[in-house]
What we know:
Layout: H1 2-8, H2 17-35, H3 59-63, H4 65-79, E1 89-91, H5 92-96, H6 105-112, E2 115-121, E3 126-132, H7 135-147, H8 151-161, H9 165-170, H10 172-181, H11 183-199, H12 201-208, H13 214-233, E4 244-247, H14 254-266, E5 273-277, H15 284-291, E6 301-306, H16 311-318, E7 325-333, E8 338-340, E9 343-344, H17 347-354, E10 361-369, H18 371-383, E11 389-397, E12 408-411, E13 419-423, E14 429-432, E15 439-442, H19 450-457, E16 466-470, H20 475-484, E17 493-497, E18 500-502, E19 517-521, E20 524-526, H21 527-539, E21 545-549, E22 552-554, H22 556-568, E23 572-579, E24 587-593
Parallel strand pairs: 4-5, 5-6, 6-7, 7-10, 9-10, 10-11, 11-13, 12-14, 13-15, 15-16, 16-17, 17-19, 18-20, 19-21, 20-22
Antiparallel strand pairs: 1-3, 2-3, 7-8, 21-24, 23-24
Helix pairs in contact: 4-7, 7-10, 8-11, 10-11, 10-13, 12-13, 13-14, 16-17, 17-18, 19-20, 21-22
Amino acid sequence: MYLICLWCDDLPLGKSKSELYTNIIELLLSRTVRKLHLGLEITSESSQSDIPQFWSKHVHCKKYYALLKALGQLAFETLFSKQRESTLVFSQSVTERFLNKDDLKLDLCLLSGILTKSKEVKLTSESYKVSFSHKTVQEYFCALYICCQSEIDVEKFVLHRFKSVQNILDMSTVFIFISGMNAEIMSSISRELMSVISEDQITRTYRSMTYYDSRYVNPLKDIQNMYISCLKENTDNTSLCFQDFIIDKECQQENHFLNLKQLVIHNKSNIMSLSIKIEGIRCLRELIDQCELDDLHSVKKIYYRGECTKEAEIIRLLTNKSLECVTVVSSTWQGKYFIVKRSSCSSELSKTFQNISQLRAIYINSFKMEHDVLKEFVNYIINRKSMAEIRLYRLHCVTHDISCGEMNLDFSQHSDLRTLGLSDIPVSQLKVNVSSLEECAVGYLSKLGLFTLLLRELPAASKLHTFRCNALKSSGDIETLLQTLPLLVPVKEVWLVDINVGERSLSLSPEMVNLQLVFLSKVTMSGSSLRNLVKVVEKLLHSVTVEMLACNITPETEFADVKKYIKTSENFVVTFDGITQYGMYKYVFLFQTTEAGSRVH
């Protein structure tokens, strides 16, 4: 509506969000004063020099600056109120603390439409509630108030009000407005926020993990996008500080890439983590050249997924002595998703990995090597007793092919090993210290019996919270898996991918009081086996989510009966049932159990 009003009055919209809202406020004030013939003069306690520069051409904003600043304080105090129910709608008494009813400030705000008032009638009393006309209007005025503070006060405000990544994201619109109003203040705020972001558990976990987990990636990506919006809001804002960069398919948009590039280059000495997924975007060499990604002296983590045919580019990326966490997954982008594609790993690339002196976590996927190169690389991992995370997937011996049998994986001395992932690699012996193990991901192992050997150790892993298993072909391995699952009592998540359970029972234990997720992808099983699983999770007293993606349940009639039971029972909630649009999966069925207290018995 405001946009239409500006357009009808032939007034500019502005080049940024903050300019747009300033023009809207100017319009509302001018129309109210003109329409009501107000000769209202609200005393300003500020000199002309106190008035923000971005209001220099707005007559009514300058005239009523003291009023608008008071509105800003109201917006600030309510948005950051500890009483969450009073952040958007608040009592008139709260409003009058900042807008004195006697000097008509509140009346002007209500008449102009900046604020709205509603009556709340109760049985024996009535009261008035006040709110801004829209949350973004409140966020605009909050930003205005912050911009009116001294640098020391702004620093105190950031340290006092922001304790987590989520706190920051909750106020992202405020920061974008601040950027449009005063680039220097937003740059100062971003410097203070770096420590808040670094100390958040989300960031600390993300920087130490090799796996691409959206639960940790997305919040940091949202912070990155917030700063990109700040750059778009004010092109003079070239000094924003950030440390965790994610380069992915969003860079297909040229403007997004150019802003991200600017952010990366400015923060070259600050970068702590760098994630690159070549999803239909520039090749790695172009990214390294254009974003100046050589010699990142402070970087602790690098995640790379994409083409690995040109080793020199990978070596350039990984030549950083500060690295502790490294992921390289050889893949090709197919328009909607990645397909793993084995690339050659020369002695030079292998030695690049081995030269990372501070390495604590490594994830290598889909490489082929000469026998001596592979053996040297594996021995390097074995000899690094301080490793906290090891993921080795789809490593192929070019010299001996599937007959390669000299790889003895001895992790018995790795007392701090928290994550272990092994699948489709040549290995003849396997020893694992499970005392610190928190996550285990296991798939096909070339020598018969090794899978069983590993799973027999897992019930002793008292800290295990995530178990993943994929691509089992041996009937004996599948039987071992099904026997072991109920024994993994501490786990929170169970992931099974590309496994044929058949008529066998996929059972869990009622003692799994921590279980939160059962994820099944491309699992083949009978309807009776699924029914048994449903009965088990239904008996657990807490809520458990079950996700089924592209599973084959036979016969279809029994699958339909199980789904009907889930949908009609008040003990379950179905969150999705249908075809996805992503291409990797076809049919998806997602449901979760309700809390025990709300169940029907």
